[in-house]
Structures are given as C-alpha cells and as structure tokens.
Amino acid sequence: MAAETDVAPLPIPRTGGLTARRLHDGEVDAALRLCPFEDVDADVIRRELAAGADYCWMGLFTPDGTLAAVHRAMRWHRHLLLKGVFVDDGFRGSGAALGAAFAIRDWAREAGYEGVAAWVEPNKPEARLAGRLRLRPVGPLLHRYLVRLPYASGAERPAGTPPRASGTLVVPGGDEAAPMVRELLGVPRGPSAGTRLAWVLDRSRLVLSGNPCRSMADLGGFLAAVEGTAVSVGATAAEVLVEAADIPAALAMAGLGARRLSRSPVALGLVSFAGAEPSGTPVRPAATEPRTP
C-alpha cells in the first residue's frame, strides 16, 4: 500500500456481479495494464503467480471476464503483506478496491496465514481501506528507504540454489542499546545472539521487518548481515526502516543517496485472524475457488 498504491475513494461496496479469484498465467497482460509498479514486468508477475501461497494476485472480474481490479500481496513471515490495489478507471468509486481487499484478506485466512499487514499512509485514502480491513498500527510512524546493496552490481545467485521468496535471518549484535526500529511482526528470537528479522523478496528488494541498528554508524554492518540472503534470491537493494521523527537519520540516508519510498510517514498496519492456525503450520496454496465479494 503506501505511496505505491492507487486506491479509489471507498464508499459502501457496490460490486454486484463481480467475482474475485486469483489470477492465472494467461492474465499477465491484463494485470500489467492495471499495475503501475515501475519495475514489475511480465516475468515478475509470472514468477509470483507460480509461487503457490507465497504470493497472491487477486483479481476482481466482470461477468464477461474483464479485470476490474487487482490486489497484489506476498508472504511476510506468518502474515500476508498487501502491496497494492489497482482499479480500472471504469470502476473507480464502485467499491471494487474494497471488494478486492476483502477477497485477498479472506484468501489469506483460508490459506493458513495468521493475519494481514500493510504499509499505510495515515492521511491518504488508503487509510480508509485499512480501517475497513481493521488493520491497526504497530510501532511508530516510519520512513522506508530503498538502499542499494554495495555488492549488488557483481553478485550472482549461486547456481542450483532453490528459489526462496521469504524467510527469516539473524543480524548479529548486542542488546546494549535500543534498536532504531524494533522488529514489528513479533518474530520469535532464535537461540543465537542477535535480532531475527522476517524478510520477503519484493521484486528486486528485500523487505525487512525491523532495523536493529543502534545508530546509522551500524548500517554497513546491517547490510553486510543481509548480504548472503540477498545474493541467494537475487535482491539488489533493501528497504531500511527509520523513524519519521529521526531527522539526523533522514539526513544521513539522503547523504547515502537512499530513496525514500513515500512522501509522508507510514505505519505498519496489522490484523491477526481470530482462531488462526498456530505458528509452524505450513501455509497452504488453498482457497483458489472463485467467490463473489
């Protein structure tokens, strides 16, 4: 969500006759027509469509098969991270964005996720959508910075390495000071010292669930700690979280040439499903049957 989404105003849904289901490989071109991500191409969509329950492209279709809206999401530890809802111009104001969001939320519950999450700009129309989904902010207001990994230009994914979409990694470090941004998803600490973070591959970037740096002086060590994971999945950049109120950190990020991913601060919105399956239960590629929102 956040700056990368295109959310229409959200009245009470009027989506009669529209059917929601996951996209299939033959609908890549239709998805590209609606999806304005600058670095999402047909290959990225096909890769995500083929990834089972790790990614979900949920479409809202008219009776004649026209794609009215699409919602993209991906597995981030035990939650489904909502990354953008896009609505055809002819269906703006119809409630299609809300219908697609409800459909992808319901799919996540049926597929075994513990909840859904999204980056939300509080003063944007998407905040209304987040409210309808009952997402609640976790942690402070943040800025997300896209930081190019220093080794990225020459790194190659090891041959024969099975592709991964998400997981956890441990960033070594002591606990003598508070992190810049605590881990946001409640990932359990491992037996070894350090901070365990959830990660997910979003196009060519790693999305991380916290920033364990004690100060910007630790950033180099942080990026080095994620290097092995990034190389193994072909990521060339990482999203680094910084509190919106941390002006010195913002200036340091600007000095590094990092790109801020939204104009205004965002909060991580989170909702957990009542009666969700316990952690450790595999997420299953289920709930693919069509439904009417």
Number of helices: 6
Broad shape: globular
Query: Helix content range of the residues, please?
Result: 10-25%
Strand content: 25-35%
Structural class: alpha+beta
Terminal CA distance reads 20 Å
Report the mean per-residue pLDDT as an integer: 83
Give the topology string: H per helix, E per strand.
EHHEEEHEHEEEEHEHEE
Biggest pleated-sheet summary: 12 strands, mixed
What is the CA-atom radius of gyration, in angstroms? 19 Å
Q: How many beta-strand runs?
A: 12
Sequence stretches where pLDDT stays below 50 over 5 or more residues: 1-14, 275-293
Care to describe what's here?
With 293 residues, this protein is an alpha+beta fold. The protein contains six helices and twelve strands. Strands 1, 2, 3, 4, 5, 6, 7, 8, 9, 10, 11 and 12 form a twelve-stranded mixed sheet that branches. Strand 4, helix 3 and strand 5 (115-120) form a beta-alpha-beta unit. The chain is globular.
